[in-house]
Amino acid sequence: MELRGGANREQAFAVASSGAACAADAAEDLVASGGAARGAEEVLALRLCALTGEFYRANAESFSQTRQSPWQGWVRLLEVVGLAAKQKPLRVLDLACGNLRFERYLADALPGRMLSGWAVDNCDPLVEAGERNESDALSRMSFQNLDAIERLFAGCLREALEAPDASCDLAVSFGFMHHVPLERWRVGLLRALIAKVRPGGFVAVSFWRFLNSDKLARKAKETTIRARAELGIPELPPNDYLLGWQDTQGLYRYCHHFDEPEIERLLAMVADSADLVSRFEADGKTGNLNEYVVLRVK
Predict the structure, then answer these.
(1) DSSP classification of residue 12
(2) Rounded CA separation 70/282 (Å)
(3) What is the rounded CA–CA span in Å between residue 35 and residue 1?
(4) All residues at 6 or more sequence positions from 7 whose CB lies less than 8 Å from its CB, including other chains
(5) pLDDT in tens, 120-139
């Protein structure tokens, strides 16, 4: 896989690019200097994203080790979009690719089919953990180091992605939407993915619904209370939580649980450019911890 450097970080994004320990100070500096932050909710959103970035940098190896098997929903996805029945080359954009396991899944599920495109993430250690298992089938994939949150904050994610507009057959983002605070940023992410797909191509996104599990819900609430007290974080918006990882102390990631009305609103906001093809639940022991949305680009 070809490694490519990402774009420069704007000064205004000091909140998210700084370490978690100094995120609060950076947020205050941003507001005081008359930067681009739009109010307290955006400052808080950036601080939560800083925590998440620090979390993945610190836990890349252990996190990758637990993220090796394909998700159950990916099998259903290939059935929905009919990829398994086609033989022509497949060009893919994977935003927040992590350790590249979706790319490895495609290579295994579609043997002999030429796979190319872009895998995008800003956590090099996590990507590198996946590259240890790299196969020849992934040699035509290019990696773009890009902080999607930074670009959503700046309002230019679409322009920052190296994939040309209308160039991909499939654009996906799995296990990432729940790390994106603010509804307007989530809409921006969906619109950026849609813009990169040719008419008739597909966009697929997963929405984590961890409150569907009593165990995960209880743990999320307990961890959030502890993390807010430890870090001095104000009350979070509805369905926003801070989760930890195994027995690691002092590192937290921001996660959002999506309810049905939220997903409905997001779909309505992009209905002018993509049609809903399928919605289904999958993954986890209960088979309902992720909700998948599959869109066909107009």
Answers:
(1) G
(2) 12
(3) 37
(4) 146, 151, 160
(5) 998 765 566 555 455 566 77
